[in-house]
Every structure is written in structure tokens, then in C-alpha cells.
């Protein structure tokens, strides 16, 4: 009798241990921008792989970075902008990527990757989405214009134009207009850009706005808006949007924003993290995400899978002197001081 009980007990232990192995949770933690990945992507990923993704979100790089410095941070994949990638690399916060687990990395346009200066060779990061600010124009109301930041000097458009409420972006494009780098760390150049905005641009703009400019443009409260085209396009209605709308990449240049997928150095599940990244780099998935947010594609072979028309190309950014937004280090205080002066000026 004892031997039978022993056999039953051993069988139960074996069964439980087997269940524990086969039932091991396949889960990862993703930290991404708010509304920056369609729910369908994560749903389809779980259906195909069995991996559940727990999503937390943030509304700025500063918020993201502050959370990662806390002991409670337990993320596998994070999506910082390029200027923060370089900072996180320097601080040892990221682990190198295993490219053998990312075969879909080959889908990228190699020429575009060559421009990435914050992580040469993409040792620690892979691009997620690239965007840029420029000038959105209602061509019904503004028939004559040039592709230049000079637009904001036009007194005939006074109170019908908006500039972004963003110190780096506004001062960055003013720096480009004056012939400097958008990532200048020279206090004299930044002060010159400050004075230019105060004297020549601010008198003509209705407001500095990074939240409502798309709605104001769509309702014709404004006719010219500095900002991301995807924000405006989501507000415009109708099948013939581009008959009355233009997006300009000013010839003087501007700033490029590249958000990137990285794996944290302390990631609980780095192999599963690679699996998620590789899935997002699949041509059909990349095309779907870019369509959702009106971004230009980073993968040439994904273009034929797209269903929306994007108003600019990535190649156009580089031929128009655009720069990746870079980490300016301690010089950020110069930008803050200049921006405060712009906001206080009459």
C-alpha cells in the first residue's frame, strides 16, 4: 500500500513540475509613448507568439527617463528618442542587441541608417518611427508661399500662424534659418536665435501651441502651422485632403525626431524582447504602424503595403538640411533661458 501511495505522490510531483515548465509565462514589459503603438499590433503579436505584452506609457522623454531611474522600473523594451538613446548608452542603461535574433533588421533602408549618429551601427537601438516638423499650409487661404522659415515674417498672415510650444524646436529652426546647427551649444548663437524669434516671428503668430494646432488648422482658425504633419492630417477630413493642403520642408532645414526601440540592461526577458522588436520590424507590421500615424516608411519594401499618402519623404529631409535632434547636455540651460525670454517678451 505504501509503495502505491509513493508512486501516486511521485506521479503528482512530476505532473506539477511538468505543468510549471510548459505553463511558464511568456510576458514582457513595454514602455512606450502614449498612443504610439496600435492595440492591434500587440493583440496580433500575442496571437502569433503567445507572448503577452504589458504596456506602460509616458508623455515625454523626461518622464520616461525619470521612471527608468527608479528601482521599481522593470521594463524589457523602451522607445526613447535619439538624444536620450545616446545618454542612456553612456550611462550603461542599455544592453547591446543580438542582431542574429533580429533578421527583419535587414528590411531597413541602409542609407537612412547611415545618418544615425547617436548610435552608429545600431549597436543598442533600432528605429521605430521617424518624424519631422515643418510648415503646414492651407493652400486655399495662402496661395503664394515659399518653402522657408521666412514664412513667419509675413505680416499679411499675422494672427493666422502658430509656432510650436517647444523650446528646442522653435529655437532649433531659428538657428537653422540663421545658418547654425539646430543642436548648437553656443550661447551666443542661441541668444541670436532668441532675438530673431522675438523681433521677427513672434509678432506675427497667434500663439505658441503644440496641442491644439491641428484642430485650429482644420477649423481654419489658422492657415499656417509649424508642427508635425500627422497631427494636422488626422484632423482634416475628406478624400481630397492634398488639394487644399501642403506640408513644407523649409530649405534652411529643421529637426528630425527618431524614436527607437531599445532593450534595458536589466530586462527580465531579453530574448522575448528581441522577438517583439523583430515582429515590429516585419514589413507588414511596419507598414501598418506607419499608416496609423502618417509617418514616412523606413523600409523601402514596405511602401507597396501602405494605404495612406505621406506628405514628405525621409530622403527629402536630408536633402533639405534637416538634422537629428541631439542631446545638447548642459547647454539645455541656454535654451531654457532663451525660451523664457521669448515667452516673457511683448
Automatic annotation (TrEMBL):
GO biological process: polyamine transport
GO molecular function list: polyamine binding
Location in the cell: Periplasm
Signal sequence, start to end: 1-20
Transmembrane feature ranges: none
Entry annotated with the keyword Transport: yes
One of the record's GO cellular component terms: periplasmic space
Keyword annotations from UniProtKB, A to Z: Periplasm, Signal, Transport
PANTHER family per the UniProt record, alphabetical: SPERMIDINE/PUTRESCINE-BINDING PERIPLASMIC PROTEIN (PTHR30222), SPERMIDINE_PUTRESCINE-BINDING PERIPLASMIC PROTEIN (PTHR30222:SF17)
Name the UniProt record assigns to this protein: Extracellular solute-binding protein
Source organism (scientific name): Entomospira culicis
Amino acid at each position: 500500500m505504501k509503495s502505491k501511495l509513493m508512486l501516486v505522490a511521485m506521479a503528482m510531483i512530476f505532473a506539477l513540475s511538468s505543468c510549471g515548465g510548459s505553463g511558464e509565462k511568456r510576458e514582457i514589459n513595454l514602455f512606450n509613448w502614449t498612443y504610439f503603438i496600435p492595440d492591434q499590433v500587440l493583440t496580433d503579436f500575442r496571437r502569433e507568439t503567445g507572448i503577452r505584452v504589458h504596456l506602460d506609457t509616458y508623455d515625454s522623454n523626461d518622464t520616461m527617463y525619470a521612471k527608468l531611474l527608479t528601482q521599481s522600473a522593470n521594463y524589457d523594451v523602451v522607445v526613447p528618442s535619439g538624444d536620450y538613446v545616446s545618454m542612456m548608452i553612456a550611462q550603461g542603461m542599455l544592453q547591446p542587441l543580438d542582431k542574429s535574433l533580429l533578421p527583419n533588421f535587414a528590411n531597413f533602408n541602409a542609407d537612412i541608417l547611415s545618418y544615425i549618429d547617436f548610435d552608429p551601427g545600431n549597436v543598442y537601438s533600432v528605429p521605430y518611427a521617424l518624424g519631422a516638423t515643418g510648415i503646414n499650409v492651407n493652400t486655399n487661404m495662402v496661395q503664394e508661399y515659399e518653402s522657408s522659415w521666412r514664412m513667419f515674417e509675413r505680416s499679411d498672415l499675422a494672427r493666422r500662424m502658430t509656432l510650436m510650444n517647444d523650446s528646442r524646436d522653435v529655437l532649433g529652426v531659428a538657428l537653422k534659418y540663421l545658418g547654425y546647427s539646430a543642436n548648437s551649444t553656443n550661447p551666443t548663437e542661441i541668444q541670436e536665435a532668441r532675438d530673431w524669434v522675438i523681433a521677427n516671428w513672434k509678432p506675427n503668430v497667434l500663439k505658441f501651441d503644440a496641442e491644439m494646432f491641428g484642430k485650429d488648422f482644420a477649423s481654419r482658425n489658422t492657415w499656417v502651422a509649424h508642427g508635425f504633419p500627422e497631427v494636422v492630417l488626422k484632423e482634416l477630413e475628406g478624400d481630397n485632403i492634398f488639394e487644399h493642403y501642403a506640408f513644407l520642408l523649409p530649405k534652411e532645414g529643421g529637426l528630425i525626431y527618431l524614436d527607437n526601440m531599445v532593450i534595458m540592461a536589466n530586462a527580465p526577458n531579453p530574448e522575448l524582447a528581441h522577438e517583439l522588436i523583430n515582429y515590429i520590424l516585419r514589413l507588414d507590421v511596419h507598414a501598418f504602424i506607419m499608416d496609423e500615424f502618417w509617418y514616412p516608411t523606413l523600409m523601402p519594401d514596405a511602401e507597396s503595403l501602405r494605404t495612406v499618402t505621406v506628405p514628405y519623404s525621409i530622403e527629402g529631409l536630408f536633402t533639405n538640411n534637416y538634422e537629428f535632434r541631439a542631446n545638447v547636455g548642459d547647454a539645455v540651460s541656454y535654451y531654457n533661458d532663451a525660451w523664457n525670454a521669448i515667452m516673457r517678451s511683448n
